[in-house]
Structure prediction request, 400 residues.
Amino acid sequence: EYAAPIVASAVEAFMIVVLLFTMYNRFVTHSKRDRMWREALIHHAESQGLGTQALKAEHQAITDRDTFNMVRPLMAVIALTATGSFLAIVFFPMDLTGRFLIWIPVLLGLIIAIPTCVRYPLRHESDQIRFTEVLAETFRSTGEEIMPMPKVVKDTKLWIHVALLLITSGLYAVIWLVMMVRAMNRHLRYQHSYEDHLLQFLEGDKNAFEGALDEEGKVIRKRHMPKNLFITELLLVAICFTYMTRITGIVTDFNMGMVGNTIINNINIEEYYNYGMILLYLALMMLAMRALIGIASGRLQSWRRVIRSCIAFVIPILASMYIYNPGSYVHLFDLNPYVTLAVAYGIILMTVMSVSIRAYYTPKGREMPKVREWFRYVFFGKLYGDEEDSIWEKIKSSIF
Prediction:
């Protein structure tokens, strides 16, 4: 009698783990990019005849810390889930008790994964600040003053978010993950602006950091995100929340099994369809989360990720129309599949046709592409012949 609610809660936990893995993938990509950025700066300092022992030591410490912190939650979830599944299958029948024992390791993995992922933006920014402080100290011996990267990501109380997660039975996870995305995107916007100032300094403009801070001590952003992108974010959050409530409806009414509008009386088939629907909605949530991640970073790759994710909505949404009946609980929050499709393709048209959005994602110093070229970039070729528009490549091409 106690196993059923635990299984339902564990399914919710598994859903959160999947979303965390989506965030985890983003963090790994960004960590690799920043690793190359640090290596390029170390190489430039060496080319100027400066001692780089402290820079290399700090770089290695950050790399080791990133590798450990990024691998730990994934390996913990895999190892604990595999162990629990083996014990449950070998020693217990696969009724609710067996499922209960399988999902306990998933809950433990979630406990390990959440702190690592949610604190990544703050921890990562702290590492970047320390590295730029060491960089400034290295160049100070030449009489040049480099401004360290300022702090923009705010610390939050982890226990408050965990409490809200428990109170809302996991539904708060969407809001929490969106807050994480916005914190990371905020860091990226300021980091890219700081890197622009730093590149100007390394190219010979010794006054590049003059007036670089605003009244709050932060780097002035040279480009502001268009307001219609905020609308895009809100629509994607609504889609995420909708699919999370659908999964919640399934796990809180586990005897409901539907194909279209036809009730399935066989309990085993019911459960298979329920699990299939859970996987389908998890895939849709991952697509929506991928579109949210990086939407405000102002990079070409981020824009293309948004468009590709929205295009990919069509197949699973159409499939869900034939195998899904949400039940009375989920109807309170439900979005019609046609509405979801309209939102997805509205986002595509808006981001392709809007002049302000195209200007926002166009790299600095480049001509804004035409709509046809912009849309072709989603599927074929490269814009400007320079796919990777990252600071470390700029440093290599313009200085070394």
Observations:
- The longest strand covers residues 258-259.
- Residues 17 and 110 are 6 Å apart (CA to CA).
